[in-house]
Design goal:
Blueprint lengths: L10 H7 L5 H7 L7 E3 L5 E3 L2 H5 L7 E7 L9 H14 L4 E5 L4 H5 L7 E2 L2 E4 L1 H5 L5 H21 L6 E6 L3 E3 L9 E3 L10 E3 L1 E3 L4 H8 L3 H9 L2 E5 L4 E3 H4 L2 H8 L6 E5 L4 E4 L14 H10 L2 E5 L4 H16 L5 E6 L1 H7 L12 H20 L3 E7 L6 H13 L4 E4 L1 H4 L5 H12 L15 H13 L3 E4 L1 H12 L7 E4 L19 E10 L4 E6 L18 E2 L5 E2 L3
Helix pairs in contact: 4-18, 7-8, 7-11, 9-11, 14-15, 15-16
């Protein structure tokens, strides 16, 4: 039997009908001072980095990390649950602040959609946030491409650093999915056009500058991290850095305004800080350290998210972001949906609306693996079953009973339909977990472990693989990385989000598989080593029917078809 529900308007209709408070009012509720707020119109503002300095002696709020099981291509509403939980906590009289990533135009114009939540759990103004917002991602694009231009100009002007044009690792970027730009040749047309060479484009959110931007603690740290970025190797195979090119100052200048976090609000006027947007299947998938630290000073509770499933965003939050952040989340929310569990149980996308408890019984092993992963980190958790219109009562009851049988706390959430009111049960269970004495957070590997040990720890303990397979190119790169003294850096796995394996078609909880690592790329400025697995791409392509085909603007300037 299906639930009967009141029809809910589209996300954009809800957003356009919403009544927003002026952002000055939201700032006042957080005790932000007038000179700490830089207005971008009536409903958006940038926050001064002085806020964290002023409040440095204040105790940090408790951080709640929202993650998920492996998603379906359409997403499972993790951002919606993040927003809904923040709203629910405020309905319970708690001072909660949401900290989220900025959406990339790639998925917005492509298949996945934006990242502002949905239904009655959205951040506003959703049109602005999902498009150009305050220009942060454009600033990162500009900084990245300024560096690319400086590299090619250095070579054109005599190449004093003896850069080997065959070993330039720095790519240009743009914030759209464009597969045609993955491999390009530049500098054609004669001597005055530069030096011909192979190049390529990544999507902006895969740029190391985005990762640096999101892990830096302040402008000084940002400049220092930028200076360490390795862009190429010279004819003696020695690394060439931004510091060698003497452009770290210019890059920091281009990013200085973008470094200030953005303050907006939810439909229920819960404050939301949105800043930074690295992908979790390519990069580390978390909003900026600066924003999370600021949210922890401004609120008693911080609800933040990490991209995709716990095998990607949450693992990277805990191994990569937490050391820079200086504190760890105290509770993890694992978002699951009936439809995703059924897909992991073998149901095709076209049949997900049909009741299938048998498929749930198979697919729920995927949820179990993510629960086990969070337990390995020593953190408490709550499963949030994000309800969809097509879920049947029998299916919901099965998941509830299964969780009860396995002593897994679970809350049914209806935040898309009901806003904060639909997340009260989840909020109460999260608060209950926070009140308990918790186990100590423990990473799955230590800094002193070898890179190969780190790779194996993630593959075996987080994904459930039996081993890793370093391809010849990766083995060679591993030796070079160790030789340069970068072996103590953490690992950032680039892997499909749809599977625990490196093969997107292997759903559920596969066993007896190997993770193939084809390439290791040092991101020394960000402070991690990227391991590219399977066929993961750093420049996605558009689907057959991109979301952009449904978008328009009416004669009054109102967006149409934006979700």
């Amino acid at each position: 039997m299906k639930h009967t529900k009141t029809a809910v308007p589209s996300d954009i209709e809800i957003a356009q009908q919403a009544s927003m408070k002026k952002i000055v009012e939201i700032a006042n509720e957080l005790d932000i001072q007038e000179d700490e707020l830089e207005l971008y119109g009536r409903y958006k503002a940038k926050l001064s980095l002085n806020i964290t300095k002023r409040l440095h002696t204040k105790e940090n709020g408790k951080v709640i990390l929202v993650t998920a099981i492996n998603p379906t291509p359409a997403g499972e509403g993790k951002s919606t649950v993040t927003v809904g939980l923040g709203q629910a906590l405020n309905q319970l009289g708690k001072k909660a602040v949401i900290a989220m990533r900025e959406p990339s135009l790639g998925p917005t114009m492509g298949m996945k959609g934006g990242a502002t939540g949905g239904g009655y759990s959205q951040v506003l103004p959703m049109e602005d946030i999902n498009l150009h917002f305050t220009g942060d991602i454009h600033a990162i694009t500009t900084a990245n491409n300024t560096l690319a231009a400086m590299i090619d100009n250095h070579i054109h002007q005599g190449n004093a650093l003896q850069i080997d044009t065959r070993r330039i690792s720095w790519k240009r970027v743009m914030d759209l999915n464009d597969r045609a730009l993955r491999k390009v040749v530049i500098g054609l047309g004669g001597p005055i056009q530069g030096v011909p060479r192979e190049d390529g484009f990544d999507i902006t959110v895969a740029s190391e500058i985005m990762a640096v931007f999101c892990l830096a603690k302040d402008l000084k740290d940002l400049k220092e991290r930028l200076s360490k970025i390795v862009v190429a190797y010279d004819v003696h195979k020695k690394p060439i850095t931004v510091k060698n090119l003497k452009v770290e100052g210019a890059l920091t200048l281009l990013l200085k305004d973008a470094c200030q976090p953005n303050l907006v609000q939810t439909l229920e006027h819960t404050p939301a800080i949105i800043h930074g947007g690295p992908f979790a299947n390519i990069a580390h998938g978390c909003n900026s350290v600066i924003a999370t630290q600021m949210a922890a000073k401004l609120g008693d509770y911080v609800v933040t998210e990490a991209g995709f499933g716990a095998d990607l965003g949450a693992e990277k939050f805990l191994h990569i972001k937490t050391p820079s952040l200086g504190f760890n989340p105290e509770v993890v929310v694992i978002v699951a949906t009936i439809r995703a569990i059924k897909m992991h149980g073998g149901v095709s996308k076209e049949q997900l609306k049909e009741e299938n408890v048998e498929a749930l019984s198979k697919g729920i092993e995927n949820l179990k693996k993510h629960v086990e992963t969070i337990e390995k980190f020593g953190l408490s958790y709550v499963v949030a079953l994000n309800e969809f219109v097509t879920d049947s009562e029998a299916e919901i009851q099965f998941v509830k009973d299964w969780c009860k049988e396995h002593n897994i706390p679970i809350a049914l959430t209806q935040v898309w339909e009901k806003g904060g009111a639909g997340g009260i049960n989840l909020a109460e269970m999260v608060l209950e977990q926070l009140d308990k004495k918790q186990a100590t957070f423990k990473p799955l590997y230590q800094q002193e472990n070898t890179l190969e040990e780190k790779l194996k720890a993630i593959a075996t303990q987080v994904y459930g693989a039996k081993d890793i397979d370093l391809l010849p190119a990766a083995k060679k790169q591993l030796q070079q990385i160790i030789g340069e003294g970068w072996g103590e850096l953490p690992v950032c796995m680039a892997k499909t989000q749809y599977s625990l394996t490196d093969d997107a078609s292997k759903l559920g909880r596969p066993e007896d598989f190997v993770i193939t690592i084809r390439e290791l790329k040092p991101s020394v400025g960000a402070g991690f080593i990227v391991a590219l697995t399977g066929t993961i791409m750093t420049m996605p392509g558009l689907p057959k029917q991109p979301a952009a085909l449904n978008m328009d603007v009416d004669e009054d300037g109102k967006a149409v078809g934006l979700f």
